Amino acid sequence: MHKLLTISAAAALLLAASADGATATSYSGKTKGGNTIRFELSGGKLSRINTGVPTSCVETSGSGQTAAGAELFQPPGAFALGKTVKARALQPAAMNQGIKATKNYTVTTSGKAGGTISGRLAVNFSYLRPGIDIYHSYIYVCNGTTSFTAKPR
């Protein structure tokens, strides 16, 4: 009897938690550069952010080499609406030919659930482009930023 009561109580708690939990709303919009941005909003937090950010990379040893393009912006975790939140992840970097780099993300958002959400996205990372020896290798420092607006889908 005690086990049955415990299982019933656990099931009731699980049902109550799912009823009180916010359902995720999908959002879609555009960045300043024209890329599509998608994310989910649940419980006042954005998650599963997916877009591209225009990024430029500068080589640091004085060779004058630069690179520019779009970098994937897919930060891990959830970001509170109306705040600036940072995250870090070891992920493939498009600017580094898909080789992993530690990306530092900053997400700043404003708006209200159910309405338009806007914000600013920033990513920075560095990578080594190996050469024939240590003297012919290049270290690149990369930075990308954009702003966005999105509405519920």
Concise overview:
With 153 residues, this protein is mainly β. It contains one helix and nine strands. Strands 1, 2, 3, 4, 5, 6, 7, 8 and 9 form a nine-stranded antiparallel β-sheet that branches.
| Number of strand segments | 9
Q: What is the element string, with H for helices and E for strands? A: HEEEEEEEEE
The radius of gyration over CA amounts to 21 Å
Percent range of helical residues: 10-25%
- What coarse outline follows from CA principal-axis ratios? elongated
Instruction: Enumerate the spans where pLDDT stays under 50 for 5 or more consecutive residues.
Output: 1-20
- Put simply, the count of helices is 1
| Structural domains: how many | 1
Distance between the termini: 48 Å
Percent of residues in β-strands: over 45%
Biggest sheet, in brief?
9 strands, antiparallel
Structural class, judged by helices and strands?
mainly beta
Describe the structure.
The chain is mainly beta. It has one domain. It contains one helix and nine strands, in the order H-E-E-E-E-E-E-E-E-E. Strands 1, 2, 3, 4, 5, 6, 7, 8 and 9 form a nine-stranded antiparallel sheet that branches. The protein is elongated. The N and C termini lie far apart (48 Å).
Chart the SSEs and their pairings.
Blueprint: H1 2-20, E1 25-31, E2 36-42, E3 45-59, E4 66-73, E5 78-80, E6 84-92, E7 100-111, E8 117-129, E9 138-152
Antiparallel strand pairs: 1-2, 1-9, 2-3, 3-4, 3-5, 3-9, 6-7, 7-8, 8-9
Tags for this entry?
single chain, 153 residues, mainly beta, 9-stranded antiparallel beta sheet, 58% strand, disordered N terminus
